[in-house]
Structures are given as C-alpha cells and as structure tokens.
Specification:
By secondary structure, this protein is an alpha/beta fold. It contains 8 helices and 7 strands, in the order βαβαααβαβαββαβα. The chain has 2 domains: about 150 residues, Rossmann fold, CATH 3.40.50; about 50 residues, no CATH class. A 5-stranded parallel β-sheet has the order 2-3-1-4-7, with helices on both faces. α1 crosses α8 and α2 packs across α3. The chain binds adenosine-5'-diphosphate and zinc ion (ZN). The site of zinc ion (ZN) has 8 residues, from loops.
C-alpha cells in the first residue's frame, strides 16, 4: 500500500555487444536482493519465444542484428518498469540504445517516479569484443551465460544451473556480429554523450577479470 513512497533507482549499463553488460549486471543482482537486473535483450527473446505481437515484430530485426523499433522496445521496457513494485535499484542492461530511447526512458522514469542514478559504460576494445562473442554460449532453458574459455561451465556444453545443453545465440554469427557493432557505433555511441552531458556517465574498464569489473561497477554509483 505504501509503494508510492518507495523510490526506484535506475542504473543504466552501456557498452558494445559483448562488452559484458549482462554478465556484470547479473553478478551484481545475484549478490544483492535490492538490485534487479533488467535486460532488454532477454525481454525481447522471451517475447519472441512466446510469440507476442511485439515478439513477432522484433524477431526479424534481431536476427539481422538491427535495432528493434524504438516504440516497440520503449513500450516493453515502460510496461516492465511500471509493473515493478517497491524500493529497488534497476540495473538496466541494453536500453537505451538510441538517443530517442533515452528520451523515452526519461518519460518512463518521470511517470514511475524513478530516478536515473548513473550510466555505467563498460569500456572494451573491439578486438576483445569479437573474441568474447565468438566464445559466448547460452543456456536456452534458464538463460545463464557462459564463455568457452573465460566462463566455462563445469562440464563442457552443459549448463551448471539446470543441466540443459548450451547453444550459440542466433545473432552471434560473424556476419550479424559485424552488423551489431556497426549499429552500436552509429546509434548507441551518441547515447554515451547524452549521459556524459548530464554528468551521469561512469566509465569502467571492462577488459579485466569479472570479479574486478563487478567491484568497480558497484563502486561507480554508490
Ligand atoms: P548484445 O548487447 O550482445 O547485442 P542484447 O541481448 O542486448 O545483446 O541484444 C540482442 C538484440 O536485441 C539486438 O541486436 C537488438 O536487435 C535487440 N535489442 C536489444 N535491446 C534493444 C534496444 N534497446 N533497442 C532496440 N533493439 C534492441
Ligand atoms: Zn540453464
């Protein structure tokens, strides 16, 4: 009943595809119940799987490595955040990815009474990105993420959490990855500047060990 008093905070995770947004935000949320990991890519993949109207519209864009239209993902994120109750900090991973989406997020935050606390940029060189995406494996059942070298499962090809066989994401093939990186440079890099101008940007070196990156990211907004 007193939920309207609770303030939701939003910490945005920015970075190229493969920069580790999902891994780092996921680890942070696992370690602290007040932190909620919200991934636009996961919401979209779930909508595709359930064949909702938005999912059916999004599928083609995702397969080609293009961005889903701002209005489609904006509505999805807006609905999701509005449905979250209570005092928490949302670790928003994968949204906003265009300046128009950043403006949508301002409107959503205004409506929910949420506060934008920081935008963390995971800084990773292009060469590392390509190597990371090439080795990425995901669990189709529970969504857990792995890397054949950097984050190997206990048994090769099998999810530690649920025992399902790991797969390569449909959009992790070299051709689509090239397109996703180009889209990032053209459409998402301006978002970095958008938050820089507002004094919300925190750069974190995303190239080292996961535990170190998690620690640096946690310190970046407290
Ligand atoms: P990555 O960060 O590795 O590219 P994501 O899971 O975040 O992976 O995104 C996968 C795909 O989902 C993107 O290539 C894009 O098609 C779609 N997508 C995710 N977030 C957004 C967004 N904010 N706006 C538009 N499309 C999005
Ligand atoms: Zn699993």
């Amino acid at each position: 009943m007193l939920n309207y008093l609770a303030v939701m905070k939003i910490v945005i995770f920015l970075g190229a595809p493969g920069s580790g947004k999902g891994t780092i935000a996921g680890r942070l949320a696992e370690a602290d119940a007040a932190l909620r990991h919200v991934s636009s890519g996961d919401l979209l993949r779930d909508a595709v799987k359930r064949q909702t109207a938005a999912g059916v519209e999004a599928a083609g864009y995702m397969k080609r490595g293009e961005l889903v239209p701002d209005a489609v993902i904006g509505q999805m994120i807006g609905d999701y955040l509005s449905g979250m109750a209570g005092e928490c900090t949302v670790l928003l991973d994968g949204f906003p990815r265009t300046v128009a989406q950043a403006e949508i997020l301002d409107a959503v935050a205004g409506r929910c009474g949420a506060e934008l606390t920081a935008a963390i940029l995971l800084d990773v060189a292009d060469g590392i990105i390509v190597e990371r995406i090439a080795g990425r494996r995901v669990c189709p059942k529970c969504g857990a993420g792995y890397h054949v070298k950097n984050i190997p499962p206990r048994v090769a090809g099998i999810c530690d959490e649920c025992g399902a066989g790991l797969v390569i994401r449909k959009d992790d093939n070299p051709e689509t990855v090239k397109n996703r990186l180009a889209v990032y440079k053209a459409q998402t890099v301006p978002v970095i500047e958008f938050y820089g101008t507002r004094g919300l940007l925190r750069r974190v070196d995303g190239a080292g060990l996961i535990d170190d990156i998690v620690r640096m990211a946690r310190r970046a907004w407290a």
